[in-house]
Amino acid sequence: MKLHGYFRSSAAWRVRIALNLKRLDVEHVSHHLRHGEQRDPAYLALNPQGLVPTLELDDGTALTQSLAIIEWLDETLPEPGLLPKDPLERAKVRAFAQAIACDIHPVQNLKVLNRLRELGHDGDRALAWAASVNVDGLSACEQLVANTPGPFCFGDSPGLADICLVPQLGNARRFKVDVAQFPRLLRAEAAAMELAAFRDATPDRQADAE
Amino acid sequence: MKLHGYFRSSAAWRVRIALNLKRLDVEHVSHHLRHGEQRDPAYLALNPQGLVPTLELDDGTALTQSLAIIEWLDETLPEPGLLPKDPLERAKVRAFAQAIACDIHPVQNLKVLNRLRELGHDGDRALAWAASVNVDGLSACEQLVANTPGPFCFGDSPGLADICLVPQLGNARRFKVDVAQFPRLLRAEAAAMELAAFRDATPDRQADAE
User: Which domains can be identified in chain B, with CATH numbers?
Assistant: First the structure.
């Protein structure tokens, strides 16, 4: 299998963590987002959205969208499980993951910051937009896990929620958000970062890191 | 069960379709988004993101995020199934749904348009932003189902992909996008709109419609 990604993409980062938790070794193919390599025709044939990640299977099948890829991994390689077995608990974990993957990340990613630049907003105003989106979204996430058992987001093992949280906190820091306001999220992150699966997936440890 | 929603919210619209397909009758509670009712403290206690929809179960449990709610419905009431049984096919359906729910809808919703207004962009420029996000995203969606069997997005029965598509096409029209450029998507929409489950979920048929 090949993972098409980019070291700094937090959606690709999620899939790197999941692959590590499942102990899967894949070939990594980097597409430099700031150079627009994700819009090369050969890549668009794999991923019509022109986004990373794409997981390319050995038979050429291309799976897109990080959460869909992670659920596929979890369904085809069930151990260790990344979602609880109980439907209600699964729904809560998925809702937390989607609060990040739908309502934070896409509203502050490179594509949106480029759109803002086209409207004349870059530098401080773009940073303020991205920071505000992170603060709003992570404040809600903090409440979604306020009463769950720890140390991870939903109990004593890492799962889809932690996989989404750790890269998003990475983004929040990059946008100068004071993450100390999210103590429950930081507790989950600290538990995750004790695991090699999470440590080996960080942007600075990727071959294409700048 | 109570569905907390708003007639025009396309995320709530998705859940209305899913409830209709599952033949579940629920109480509808409207929160007027333009009046900010989703930020009432009582509602924030149910949904810390201050977004619709929320599905409130009879025991008071609150489920948030439309895709998580729909997967929960599908896991607890499997017929009619809203996702294929094969993991690879499920991954493709989920990827299509997430292409809409992560990468189109949140980048053109009321919250983002309000942020643009704060930066001095409303009227034509906000409309152009929203239209462009829809064109980019739906063009990719058109390709994701270019070679699938019809008439629905993924075969001969409606599912999660169609549930996300129909409300998004509604948004695209509201933002003056010429949807004739998406013939495969329109074919799926036409098949869906032959079903009462889809027709009864449209914004204009809701009690809170303006």
Answer: 2-79 (3.40.30.10), 87-197 (1.20.1050.10)
